[in-house]
Amino acid sequence: MGVKRVVTGVFGEEGFITTKLDSMVGWARKYSLFVYPFVTACCGMEYMSVSCAHYDLDRFGAALPRFSPRQADLLMVVGTISHKIAPVLLRVYEQMTEPKWVIAFGTCTCTGGFYDNYATVQGIDTILPVDVYIPGCPPRPETVLDGIMKLQEKIQNSKQEY
Amino acid sequence: MSDIFERIREKFPEYFRSSHSNFGDDTILIKPEGLLPVMGYLKDEEGFNVLMDLTCVDYYGEEERFEVVYHLYDLTEKKRLRVKVRLREEEPVVESLSHMWKNANWYEREVWDMFGVKFLNHPNLKRILMYEEFEGHPLRKDYPLRKRQPRVGPLN
Ligand code: SF4
Questions:
Q1: pTM for the full model?
Q2: Confidence bin at B3 (pLDDT 50/70/90)
Q3: Of these four, A36, B34, B82, B99, which has the most CB atoms within 10 Å of its CB?
Q4: Which CATH number applies to A34-155: 1.10.760.10, 3.40.50.12280, 3.40.50.300, 3.20.20.220?
């Protein structure tokens, strides 16, 4: 019903489009990412610059940071994750509602980076599932945008649950 | 600055061990028993009113394995002094300075956390950086390089 109303709104009484509900839902989801930024270290600077006017995450529908995990569907893990904070990260992830995605932002979150030591988690994929890895120390904003676009592609092409 | 070495040597002959000014950094080594009187004298009478830093070095393999290092600063005369004590491996214990300089409280907790040096009469000697479940002291030279103690997730 809702779909029909949108379609007639855009294409007039006569117009119609055909699509699969799956790709329609995927299209809607990929352009309304609600980000939970889990920012712990220097990569946070790059997160700030990528989400501000210069690079403007809003173009991708992902500019709305939610500071409650219950309202977010994209967890951006930005910065070094130590063993001390790891249970907190896991708790945040568990509180997010489905469907949810995770971006590992920066080398530290992908692999532990050069912190190959007693204190640091060697890649957050050891504790939670990751959809997109963005390399770089810190990654350039363009790399982040590329990562977001890859995630959108993934959301669009995956089987939607609703 | 060598006159301050002389004054300390004269005032505390039983605690004084050695001194040098290598690279322009005035340094004295004293015995750990004398830490409280010497530091009290330096603070109250020599005017070293700021404890800039307190840290530790692990000379693994030596009998006096741990060296606790205090960096003092005199705000009015802009002078610096480094004071060191050496502690034996089997008994790494030294008096706490937290009643003299409040910031020593957290420095000493860090040294306890990282090196396992105990500070007597410290008001709250618990780990400050690592988590309570962590076993051992990671900056000791005999802490295994790749030993991991994760709270969640696999060993990696
Ligand atoms: S990847 Fe580099 S910039 Fe990012 S948190 Fe780690 S050390 Fe900092």
A1: 0.83
A2: confident
A3: A36
A4: 3.40.50.12280
